[in-house]
Design brief:
This protein is an alpha/beta fold. The protein contains 8 helices and 12 strands. Bound molecules: calcium ion.
């Protein structure tokens, strides 16, 4: 399912959007200022960004411009009522669409669906590979040298997270955040990561040594 990044500093609105998008089945990542939004964009690789214009640190235009320098990921801007200039500027900077606050959730959901339909599934890689390991992201299947490897959904997400890191080491905290959507309200600790890595290694059998422990850091998956 598509992943949506919401960048919005109004917490009650953010919470409401998140709740409703998740209920529609989307994966949701959030940020409450422009700088955090850009960081989250790099980390989460969303399929769509919902971007407020008035944001602390870097405003929505700055975020939009920075994203467009490196990516064609669709951007839906949230603009204030009556601020014609907002949407004109947003569209000039490369935003795909906008909705004017206050908006109905139904309207927003309709726009989100329309944009995602337009960009289509081709916007996302259908599979990831690292050596003999292959993840089919649409069928949620893992293979090793062409043979099926049975993974739980968390193990699958964990392997995916390593493959997306493309050989780079990840800290346990980064892994928690990416796979479990770690936030401070969640009572998870880094041992959860260790336990899942252990199990994932068992599943990978002869390819287990690819999943390397990096001392004092975390883990990485050897890509070649
Ligand atoms: Ca705002």
């Amino acid at each position: 399912m598509a992943k949506i990044l919401i960048v919005e500093d109004e917490r009650s609105l953010l919470k409401g959007l998140r709740f409703n998008l998740e209920r529609e089945g989307y994966k949701v990542a959030t940020a409450t200022d422009g700088q955090a939004g850009l960081e989250a964009f790099g980390r989460e690789k969303p399929d769509l960004v919902i971007l407020d214009v008035m944001l602390p640190k870097v405003d929505g235009y700055g975020v939009c411009r920075a994203i467009r320098q490196k990516s064609q990921t669709p951007i839906l801007m949230l603009t204030a009522r009556g601020e014609e200039i907002d949407r004109v500027l947003g569209l000039e900077l490369g935003a795909d669409d906008y909705v004017t606050k206050p908006f109905s959730l139904r309207e927003l959901l309709a726009r989100v669906k329309a944009i995602l339909k337009r960009v289509g599934p081709a916007a996302r890689p259908a599979a990831l590979r690292a050596g003999p390991l292959e993840l089919d992201l649409e069928r949620y299947e893992a293979k090793c040298s062409g043979r099926a490897v049975h993974l739980s959904s968390k193990e699958f997400d964990l392997l995916r997270c390593f493959m997306e890191a493309d050989g780079k080491a990840l800290t346990r905290e980064q892994i928690l955040e990416r796979v479990w959507g770690y936030d401070k309200g969640l009572e998870l600790d880094t041992r959860t990561v260790d336990q899942h890595v252990l199990r994932l290694r068992e599943r990978l059998g002869p390819e287990a040594p690819r999943l390397v422990t990096v001392k004092n850091v975390g883990y990485r998956l050897k890509a070649d």
